[in-house]
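Re: weekly structure request thread

Next one in the queue (556 aa):
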Amino acid sequence: MMNKLSFLKVFAVLFLMISLATTNTVSAQNHIAKPLVLDMVHHNPGETPYKSKYNDPAVIKEMGYNGKVYFLFESPALAINWESVDADILPKGSKERDWVEAKAVEIKVMHAESKAQGIAIFAMSDLVLFPKRLIEKYNIEETYGDPNNPLTEKFIRAQINEMFDQFPDLDGLVVRIGETYLHDAPYHQGAIENKTSPEKTIIPLMKILREEICVKRDKQLIFRTWNAFDRNTGSYTQVSDAVAPHENLTISIKHCEGDFHRARPFSKVIGQGRHKQIIEVQSAREYEGKGAYPNYIANGVIEGFEEHTRVTEEEINSIREFVEKKPNLYGGIWTWSRGGGWEGPYIQSEMWCDLNSWVMAQWAQNTEKSEAYIFNRYATERLHLEGDDVSKFRKLCLLSAEAVVRGRNTTYNDISDVWWTRDQGIGWPKSAKDEIGQKRNLEQKDESVDKWKEIVKLAKSIHWDSKATKSHAIGSAEYGLRLYKIYRIIINMEDAENKGDTKAVQKWIKAYDKAWIHYNKLSKEYPLLATLYTQDYNRHIADNANKKVDELRTKK
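Done, posted below.
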């Protein structure tokens, strides 16, 4: 009798055969469309994957994407059998081998779906990542994170070969060394030594991958700079000078310095060096609600955020300037339509991340067009807005970008701890760096709330094409208003505490309690909204705000 795993294997093979027989697909590397316009759903590590329309290759192709990046735990790095190295690493019949084979079936079905749509297939992988049994058997616990180690290099090359041999539809790898996630990889282990060192790690590893992927196999390599060589121009230049360019090699860079925070500088390494660069854009921002409320960032990414206007004429402060000043380096756009960070908020409607993703994808292949032109197409073609409603919607969206940067930070990056609120939690903020900055900090929190009030009015005034869209537009705008009122209160409370004004602290505590009661009513008022921020959320929150408020209650 056929067991479940065997049945899945047969099903996958039949699915692949049918797809290949009925679809004209893109296989040769010289047929992969350029620039690359890629999308990825960044599932929460360790959780059930997102149910998102962007998981469907047909959906993202219709939006304008020509490739899909599968997330870390959908990578063939976790699904090869390692038999070319040693059949005893994952012996047949073992729980490790069963898990790997089930993962391979799952991935091949995903690849068949993308191949049927004729879009390129990329897999993101953390390196170095090996089976635990391999590391133990070859006694390389202390050395496997070093790509200069001969045995590590041998295994990396074997791993690359098996990935492309066992997953022939794979067009390329997206390699990350800045972090290693193992939440959904129970039988693998990962590490990287000296991840910020060009000479010790980045250059030797990139050369290995360039040779194996780009040269030998004529496949694509996208090497991410994140958390490794994304902030130091000297390091980036050193890597660029040491690794020869190749038509199949692209370097990936987040559009802003560091992580996806507003008020941070535009990335200084964009436009540097001699390699093609693909720009990473997060559509449902993990530090800004994850799509729970209006947050239109595509305008700022393409044309320049307001905080990036104070630069010299020689500096690049937007993706448009990058394309115009360094067209030979423009390799494309890579959006994360969903995900990033941890846990919630969990959205039901993908309206706001859809806007960011669609505009970025359409502009990426039509860079001569203005962002406003693409935006208006979205409003009319996808939201079916007409007349004045188009301009009202644009005003709403541009206001959202202004409200967010003022509510979480300032337009001058006066709050140094940009991590104080993230995911579904709120921490206790730190005051601005100086008196002028703190004055601006308080003023801009008021400005933010005023802008959110205007956003709510605009959402109510637009003639939406359905009751569901109207309800979500208004409800998500209210979500932003009520949340940013809480931000404003906490910032003012922290300021009052620093000044020793206990009377003002108690006044703000009362406002804080009322604001949370009002915010927590959202779910009943607008049932299609995202899950809410919670007062007890502590993951990656250094100093929980609610805990601090409770301490201040007793200081009268």
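The two ends are 74 Å apart (CA to CA). Confidence is low (pLDDT under 50) at residues 1-10, 12-30.
Next request, please.
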